[in-house]
């Protein structure tokens, strides 16, 4: 039995007419008939007597009417209470962002949170994934977007998406690098990140068959800095596929290799805080955004 079956039953009982009930519920008349039929079949009762003038409650229908009304009111009270609880969530939630906010859909996330949890204050901080892990553990951040699953047993993670990775070079190097194999590309300068960054592990995996490794001529402390460094002509690097295509359209970079690897995006938080309303609000909102 569905709640909408009971709502349809009550609408027909009050209006005593299928068409008027359909108009009231903003659904089609066949849908109203189907709801009533399904409810009667599930209950094993005839709830209405069909007459030339419309629908009249049967003896059983009159007996069910009060309970149906109470059930609908109880369900609506639950939804009303849930809405109140959402609005009652207050305070500041400090969230770490490991990449460009556009690629984390932060504007969409803020819209959902502000609409559903107006009392929640949103604070965002740009953090390297490794730093974000540490800062969530020690309480500096409440929750954070990171690459790869949580590395501590004290942390929990919600998988949001998987990004493909591309190898990029300065836009002006396109002709210079045309036809180069991996061994030849290893001789060029590369942009590296922190030793524990998954981007570095991907570079090592790419070059593993060559038994070579590009030198760490340039090291940046955050993945987002790679775009600027590659675009400036400092060297080759790895970028998220979406970022790479956007930069390539602006002629900032040239894409040498597509989808050389993939990387997972997680939202991490302390397990001990998993039941907190503020943490759950952020997780639900993020999941809604990333499921679309």
Q: Strands across the major sheet, in which order?
A: 4-3-5-10-6-9
N-end to C-end Cα span: 29 Å
What is the tally of helical segments?
12
**How many individual β-strands?**
10
Stretches with pLDDT under 50, minimum 5 residues? none
Structural class: alpha/beta
Cα Rg? 29 Å
Can you give the helix content as a percent range? 40-55%
Given the C-alpha coordinates, what overall shape results?
elongated
How are helices and strands ordered from N to C? Answer: HHHEEHEHEHEEHHEHEHEHEH
Q: How would you characterize the largest beta sheet?
A: 6 strands, mixed
Mean pLDDT, rounded to whole units? 88
Beta fraction of the residues?
15-25%
How would you describe this protein?
- By secondary structure, this protein is of the alpha/beta class.
- Helices cover 47% and strands 24% of the residues.
- The protein has 12 helices and 10 strands.
- The strands form 3 sheets. A 6-stranded mixed beta sheet has the order 4-3-5-10-6-9, sandwiched between helices. Strands 1-2 form a two-stranded antiparallel sheet.
- The longest helix is centred in the first third of the chain and has 30 residues.
- It is elongated.
- The chain starts with a helix and ends with a helix.
- The model has no long low-confidence stretch (mean pLDDT 88).
